[in-house]
Amino acid sequence: MVDHLDAIRDETGFVILFLIEKDFRNDPANKELGFFDYGDRIYQSWRQENPDQEKAIIFVLDLKERMLSYEVSPQIKEQWGDEIKNAMSDSFVAPIKRGDYAQALMDGSSMIRTRVLDPYNGSDPKSVLTEDLDTGLDATIPLFAINVVAHVLYHEAGHALIREFDLPVLANEEVMADSFATVWITQQQTDRAAQIVSDRVRSWLYEDSEVNPANYDFKGEHELDIRRAYQVACLFYGADPAKWTLDIAWLGFSESDLSDCSDTAPDQIEGWSAVLASHMRPDGDPSEKVEVIYGEGPLAEAMQATGILEIVATDLRRFDWPEPITLHFDHCDRGASWSRSERRILLCDDYVSRFIKQAETLSALPPK
Ligand SMILES: [Zn+2]
Q1: How far is the CA of 51 from the centre of ligand 1 (A)?
Q2: C-alpha of residue 113 to centroid of ligand 1, in Å
């Protein structure tokens, strides 16, 4: 039922946002369970994980990330009633637009910390699909798909950097691109890293589960999906073992594997930082050579609303590109790619649809 739980730090303490099913009220199991009880239950589980946080406010949102109402438990109300009233200022009462929300999530550094609630039991989280709202005017893309697409875009950005800056290609470029994506996300999108990497890994593992091992392609340019999943998880963990131990616990790495990850990840992080250092622009002076383009198609508007291309573009503007490059989202069926001749990162909407479907499939799987 809970899609995810986000804790946003602001001057009043912590605001917990959690998403619930749009038809929460229609589920017989919830007939007697008000938002109030529901909020309380979520609050208690959050409190267990965060015993030292002093303050909490709970907002109940619908899956379109529009606020339905807010409720707090009696204890919170008693303790923090005035704070809550103050927090319910214009900025909080105003509808939260998904684009703004995604942007705030990805801005990362100080504002928001994201935790996925019980993300991999596959039972309850019901991601939103591209269903129309009652108004018929809107469509949204599940966070799972946005996260997978984020890693995909940074992977393509890795190819772009390697080619445009003539970086040495010292191993399979596909592996290097996964490495760049993961290193960048762990170093620059810290607060979102766990969720992006988890969802990318989960997507690869799912895709692997769809392939009969007898049909594994050992000879192609790409590593097997299952291998990519574990390599990326290992690099992610090794980037900050103290921070991300719990986030990869579900993958069952051995102690010895983890120790290897801790040894090798810093080498990759230093490697990227060494080769990219001379191509970065000074802080506060972004490149004007990175453009975002949206084509037509049923997902164009929803994709734009996620803000994910803009977030990647903002990161890419930190590099001193010799020639203009574009990030292009369009109605096509060619996955995602970096074109050297066009200097373009292309993301096709069929690829996004694939991850939207995966979100649906994964959320429907029985608990493990
Ligand atoms: Zn690639």
Answers
A1: 42
A2: 29
pLDDT in tens, 3-35: 444 454 443 344 555 444 444 545 565 555 554
**Spatial contact of 197 and 182, defined as CB atoms under 8 Å apart:** yes
Calpha distance 88→81 (Å, rounded): 11
Going from N- to C-terminal start, the domains of the chain cover 5-96, 143-364
Q: For residue range 209-261, what is the model confidence (pLDDT) as tens digits?
A: 888 888 899 998 889 999 999 999 999 999 999 888 877 888 889 999 999 99
Give the whole-angstrom CA distance, residue 300 versus residue 143: 16
43-55 residue pLDDT tens: 666 667 766 655 5
Give the DSSP letter string of 78-135. HHHHHHHHHHSSHHHHSPPPHHHHHHHHHH-TTTEEEE-SSTTS-SS-----SPPPTT
- Ligand 1 centroid from CA 130, angstroms: 27
Distance CA 34, CA 30 (A): 7
Q: What is the Cα–Cα distance from 116 to 18, expressed in whole angstroms?
A: 10
Q: What is the pTM of this model?
A: 0.65
